[in-house]
Design goal:
It contains 8 helices and 17 strands. With 367 residues, the chain is α+β, with helices and mostly antiparallel strands. It has 2 domains: 152 residues, Immunoglobulin-like, CATH 2.60.40.2250; 196 residues, C8orf32 fold, CATH 3.10.620.30.
C-alpha cells in the first residue's frame, strides 16, 4: 500500500500511541510447556531512514513459518511513502518486504502490521513412534552446510567425538545438546544475537556468544552427525508464563527481543524443538543472575528445552545466506533484523543513530 505525504505524516504521528500486552498471569511453577490454546498477536514494525542522502531501500523480515501444530503466519499489511513489494526467497521460503525510496525522499518510512498465532509445543521423547519422512529435497537442504555453518573440518571432527558411542538419532541429538549446554556460555558483550560463525568459534576454543551463535553450533554439529537440523529466526512477543524473566518479552516494545531457536529431525519423532542457547541465557540473566548450572531454574530449563518450547515467540524463517533483492552488497547470514542501504551502502542494523526501527507487540483477544 502507499500513502500520500499528508496521510503518511498522520500515520507517523500515531507511532507514539502505546500498545499493551495483557498482564501476565501468576507464574506457573517450573518450565514445562505443553500444547494448549492458540494465542494471537499483532506485531507492528516501523522503520525510518534517519539520513537518506540518496536512494534508500530496506528489507524487513515478515513471518513466513506455518507449522500446523504450533505456528501460523496470518498475514501482513503496510503503509509507506516508498514502493514496497513482498518477496519470497526461493531456497528456504523466507519472506521479506522490499521497500525502495526515491533519492529525493527526505523522510523514508514504512509501517508493517503482521498477525500471527502460536501455541506451546512439546514432543514425547519417552514413547517415540514413526514420523512422516522428510522429502529428499528437505533432507538435503537441512543436512547441507552454509557459509557460516560448515559441516566438515573442525565441525565434523568435534561432532564425531561428541556422538561417539551414541547409537540412535535421539541419543546423538541428546549428546550434542548436552555438550553444547556444558561447553558454551552466553557472552553479554556480543552485539545483537551474534554472527553464527561456528567454525571460528571452535577454532578459537572460546565458545561464547548469543542465540545465533550457540544454536547455530547445535545445528552444525547435528548436521555433521547426519541429523537434519535447522535454525529458526524470530523474536519474543510476550512474557514467559512460567516466571522466567530472561525467556520472555517483558514490555510491548520488543525491538531488541530477537531470538533464534533450533530444531532437529528425528525419524521416530519428526521435527523436535531444542534451545541450548536459552539454557545459557537462564544461567547468565535469570535473577539473581550468574546462576550455577545446577541451580533448579537452570536444571528445569535444561530439561524442558530438549523437546519443548514456550512459544511466546514469533518465527520469521529458516533462511541462511540470503541475497537481498536489488542489493549489490553481500548476502546476509540470516534475516532476523531489518536491513537497509543508502546509496548502495549497507547500514548497520544495530546502529540506532542512522537506522531507526521499532517493533511493538500486543496480544489479541480470542475471537
Amino acid at each position: 500500500m502507499s500513502l500520500h505525504r499528508r496521510d503518511m505524516l498522520k500515520a507517523v504521528a500515531v507511532l507514539s500511541v502505546a500498545t499493551t500486552l495483557p498482564r501476565m498471569a501468576k507464574a506457573q511453577v517450573g518450565l514445562a510447556p505443553q500444547p494448549g490454546p492458540w494465542r494471537r498477536f499483532q506485531i507492528t514494525t516501523t522503520l525510518q531512514i534517519a539520513q537518506p542522502n540518496g536512494r534508500a531501500q530496506a528489507w524487513i523480515p515478515l513471518p513466513a513459518v506455518n507449522e500446523k501444530d504450533w505456528f501460523q503466519s496470518i498475514g501482513s499489511t503496510w503503509t509507506t511513502n516508498g514502493h514496497a513489494s513482498q518477496v519470497r526467497e526461493p531456497r528456504y521460503g523466507a519472506e521479506m518486504l522490499h521497500v525502495e525510496w526515491a533519492a529525493d525522499e527526505k523522510a523514508p518510512v514504512i509501517e508493517i502490521v503482521s498477525k500471527i498465532a502460536s501455541r506451546d509445543r512439546a514432543v514425547d521423547i519417552a514413547t517415540p513412534g514413526a514420523a512422516a519422512p522428510l522429502s529428499p529435497a528437505e533432507r538435503e537442504l537441512y543436512l547441507a552446510g552454509t557459509e557460516l555453518i560448515p559441516i566438515d573440518g573442525i565441525v565434523k571432527q568435534t561432532s564425531d567425538k561428541i556422538v561417539a558411542g551414541a547409537g540412535t538419532d535421539i541419543e546423538k541429538a541428546r549428546a550434542i545438546y548436552e555438550w553444547v549446554v556444558d561447553n558454551t556460555f552466553r557472552n553479554a558483550t556480543t552485539r545483537g544475537c551474534g554472527i553464527g560463525d561456528i567454525a571460528a568459534m571452535l577454532k578459537s576454543g572460546t565458545l561464547g556468544g548469543k542465540c545465533a551463535d550457540i544454536n547455530a553450533l547445535y545445528v552444525g554439529l547435528a548436521r555433521a552427525a547426519g541429523l537434519p537440523a535447522r535454525d529458526i529466526y524470530g523474536i519474543r512477543v510476550a512474557p514467559s508464563k512460567f516466571g522466567y524473566k530472561s525467556l520472555g518479552a517483558n514490555s510491548e516494545n520488543i525491538t531488541k527481543a530477537q531470538h533464534c531457536r533450533s530444531e532437529v529431525y528425528l525419524a521416530s519423532i519428526g521435527w523436535m524443538p531444542v534451545d541450548p542457547a536459552d539454557v545459557r541465557k537462564v544461567v547468565l540473566e535469570e535473577p539473581p543472575t550468574n546462576l550455577a548450572i545446577t541451580d533448579p531454574k537452570v536444571a528445569a530449563a535444561r530439561k524442558a528445552l530438549f523437546g519443548s518450547w514456550e512459544t511466546n515467540w514469533l518465527a520469521y524463517n529458516f533462511g541462511h545466506d540470503i541475497a537481498l533483492p536489488g542489493s549489490t552488497g553481500p548476502k546476509v547470514g540470516f534475516l532476523m533484523y531489518p536491513q537497509a542501504e543508502v546509496a548502495n551502502l549497507r547500514l548497520d542494523c544495530l546502529d540506532p543513530e542512522n537506522f531507526k526501527y521499532t517493533i511493538l507487540a500486543k496480544e489479541l483477544m480470542a475471537a
